[in-house]
Design a protein that fits this description.
This protein has about 150 residues and is α+β, with helices and mostly antiparallel strands. It is built from three helices and six strands, in the order H-H-H-E-E-E-E-E-E. It has a domain of about 30 residues. A four-stranded antiparallel sheet has the order 1-2-3-4. Strands 5-6 form a two-stranded antiparallel ribbon. The C terminus is likely disordered.
Length: about 150
């Protein structure tokens, strides 16, 4: 659909001020905006399980796509002879470096039991007799550490 001046109508979901500003740009500037939008979309893309496994230090046990981030459960390697391996939960997002490269950002959430039962929605540990998550209130399936 086109506007009375022959140009395209902007999407109704965008603010009028943004559409007006974009309409004022020349072709070169529009290409720059397009490249910037592509980079923003890439930055918001959930890390794939393959990317997570390649970037991880330790054994990845589970990767759950949560939209803008991945919830990752992995076994951490021992740091000394006396340490036993532990299993931890991480919030993993994609971040852009100042040089423009895309890296994964790992944020530690908590240690978990390798065989614990967890909420399938938020990853919180659940008592064996729980039928609702105390963190998010979800009544969905329980997760016991195996494949989802």
């Amino acid at each position: 659909m086109y506007a009375p001046d022959g140009g395209p109508n902007g999407p109704q979901e965008l603010p009028d001020e943004l559409i007006e500003r974009l309409d004022e740009l020349d072709e070169r500037s529009l290409w720059i905006v397009s490249r910037y939008v592509d980079e923003l979309l890439d930055a918001h893309r959930t890390p794939t399980p393959e990317e997570v496994r390649q970037d991880a230090h330790g054994e990845v046990l589970d990767v759950e796509d949560r939209g803008a981030y991945a919830l990752v459960k992995k076994r951490i390697p021992c740091s000394s002879d006396s340490d036993a391996p532990r299993v931890s939960m991480f919030h993993v997002t994609r971040e852009r470096t100042p040089s423009g490269e895309s890296n994964l950002h790992w944020e530690f959430m908590r240690d978990v039991s390798d065989s614990s039962t967890e909420c399938a929605n938020c990853g919180a540990s659940l008592p064996e007799d729980a039928n609702r998550c105390i963190r998010c209130g979800d009544r969905t399936t329980r997760y016991d550490g195996g494949e989802r």
